[in-house]
Q: What sequence folds into this?
């Protein structure tokens, strides 16, 4: 029984780690740009596709297999640099201050375009490249085998929470982000270039989503539909945590990850709906999410 | 000299500033008096580049600045204290003061120097330096907002109804701070808005009136 519990917790936390990467990016972009980016899930799947492609290339080129680890980060960075500034500049910027319906339509259109482009480039079949997972192997703890890669995911997510908090609290750009989230107009009169802050925050958001996809690819592979699934989960997690809340997204991801793991073991039919049941319950009790507030805009 | 030349500004589809022309000399203090809805806040927001011009132009020392974006105005030496303070609640007072100096790229030594300058000009502030911006009383907040404007406002400072909502004792306190500012920073041009000029009369060199988006030298309300 205890063994099962331990297994559930590791599975749940590893799942939570992946969801966290997408959700925290979504929430960051929402609080800084005030846009609910429907295309955010696409960055997750594109990150996964690019990671699988680069991973396969590293392996087939006969390079050292451990290079598949930095390749995961490289993939996310490539996606962020190639898409972040471009999408912000040409698709989002003109929608600032316009109606939310318009913004959702624009990002939904982007999502559809990305879906088709991914099918065009990578086909409709699933791709797998799990060298990083194989390399790390398994640990035998008290007779139960755990994938070491899962521990890596959990550690990565924990480090990311800390790094993001440090970025926001300790760096100059972090302070500018806090100011822009709190009061755009006053931030401008203080000399903060809000456009630059938007580009940077959006690109960081893309990077986090793509990193989630890249890190997920060795465990789940990648196939059409991954982006939509990631978006919906990320949205549920962001809403549970309170939109704009970094630690809220982390806690919400843990709750959703653990509930999903429990559902998979005890009631597999419910796995898909569990995140939304959790969301429903939380929002009924706390309409602005676990960490959210009505009054203050903060990050 | 800061000049507005036949400035027209639309807010929400209404022409709120109608061919506004006036000038503030370097180092002079002007109060812009007008009742609620006359366009005082709109005038200051326009000077800070937050609203696009429908017509006319704004010149700083002869240079046309109406294309300088809002975030570029602070670097021109223009400081702004909005009527509702709007400090960043998550930052303490000192962080609130330093933020604009960081944003315009001043080096650490210069930031420190300006901070000490503001602290000596506004002696209420050093005692508040670690207090969160969101925890201040109205009077304290106004003082911090003034300090924040002074951190970058080395040539012009715009104060939007600074006495609004202050109890008489606090208002006197604030007025004292302003006259100290006038004495010690003689080259800063000051534009203060008020609905009644009672607190600033002794401080200012010049009084302008705004009525339904039109600025003039005459108090049309009193003449009627
Ligand atoms: N967002 C807006 N949409 C439409 N009209 C606006 C908007 N903001 C301001 N106005 C109008 O512009 C005019 C000038 O407003 P402004 O805030 O500049 O006045 P004010 O002199 O600062 O008034 P107060 O003393 O109340 O602060 C008012 O008639 C107001 O109704
Ligand atoms: Mg006003």
A:
């Amino acid at each position: 029984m205890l063994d099962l519990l331990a297994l559930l917790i590791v599975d749940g936390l590893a799942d939570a780690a992946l969801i966290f990467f997408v959700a925290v990016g979504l929430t960051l972009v929402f609080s800084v740009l005030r846009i609910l980016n429907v295309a955010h899930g696409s960055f997750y799947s594109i990150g996964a596709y690019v990671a699988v492609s680069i991973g396969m290339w590293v392996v087939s080129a006969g390079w050292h297999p451990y290079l598949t680890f930095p390749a995961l980060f490289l993939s996310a960075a490539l996606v962020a640099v190639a898409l972040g500034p471009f999408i912000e500049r040409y698709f989002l910027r003109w929608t600032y201050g316009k109606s939310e319906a318009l913004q959702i339509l624009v990002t939904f259109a982007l999502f559809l375009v990305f879906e088709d482009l991914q099918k065009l480039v990578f086909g409709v079949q699933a791709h797998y490249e799990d060298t990083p997972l194989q390399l790390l192997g398994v640990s035998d703890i008290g007779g139960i085998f755990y994938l070491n890669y899962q521990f890596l995911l959990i550690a990565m997510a924990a480090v990311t929470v800390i790094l993001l908090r440090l970025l926001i609290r300790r760096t100059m750009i972090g302070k500018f982000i806090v100011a822009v989230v709190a009061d755009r107009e006053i931030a401008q009169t203080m000399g903060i270039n809000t456009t630059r802050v938007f580009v940077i925050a959006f690109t960081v958001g893309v990077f986090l989503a793509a990193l989630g996809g890249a890190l997920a690819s060795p465990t789940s592979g990648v196939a059409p539909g991954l982006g939509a699934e990631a978006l919906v989960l990320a949205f549920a997690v962001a809403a549970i945590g309170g939109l704009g809340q970094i630690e809220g997204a982390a806690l919400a991801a843990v709750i959703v990850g653990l509930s999903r793991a429990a559902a998979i073991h005890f009631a597999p039919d419910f796995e898909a709906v569990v995140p939304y049941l959790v969301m429903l319950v939380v929002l009924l009790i706390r309409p602005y999410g676990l960490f959210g507030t009505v009054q203050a805009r903060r990050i | 000299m800061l000049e507005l030349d036949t400035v027209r500004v639309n807010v929400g589809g209404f022409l709120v500033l109608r061919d506004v022309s006036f000038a503030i000399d370097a180092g002079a203090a002007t109060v812009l008096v007008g009742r609620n809805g006359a366009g005082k806040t709109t005038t200051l927001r326009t000077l800070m580049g937050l609203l696009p011009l429908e017509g006319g132009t704004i010149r700083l020392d002869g240079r046309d600045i109406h294309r300088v974006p809002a975030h570029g105005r602070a670097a021109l030496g223009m400081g702004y204290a909005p009527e509702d303070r709007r400090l960043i609640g998550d930052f303490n007072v000192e962080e609130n003061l330093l933020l604009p100096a960081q944003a315009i790229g001043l080096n650490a030594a210069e930031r420190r120097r300006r901070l000490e300058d503001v602290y000596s000009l506004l002696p209420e502030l050093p005692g508040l330096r670690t207090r969160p911006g969101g925890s201040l009383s109205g009077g304290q907040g106004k003082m911090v907002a003034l300090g924040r404007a002074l951190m970058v406002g080395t040539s012009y400072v715009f104060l939007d109804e600074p006495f609004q909502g202050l109890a008489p004792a606090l208002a006197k306190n604030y007025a004292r701070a302003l006259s100290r500012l006038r004495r010690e920073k003689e080259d800063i041009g000051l534009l203060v808005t008020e609905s009644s000029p009672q607190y600033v009369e002794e401080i200012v060199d010049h009084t302008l009136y705004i009525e339904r988006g039109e600025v003039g030298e005459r108090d049309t309300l009193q003449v009627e």
Q: What stands out?
A: Chain B is about 35% helix and 25% strand. The helical segments of chain B are 40-47, 70-73, 93-103, 108-121, 138-152, 168-184, 220-223.
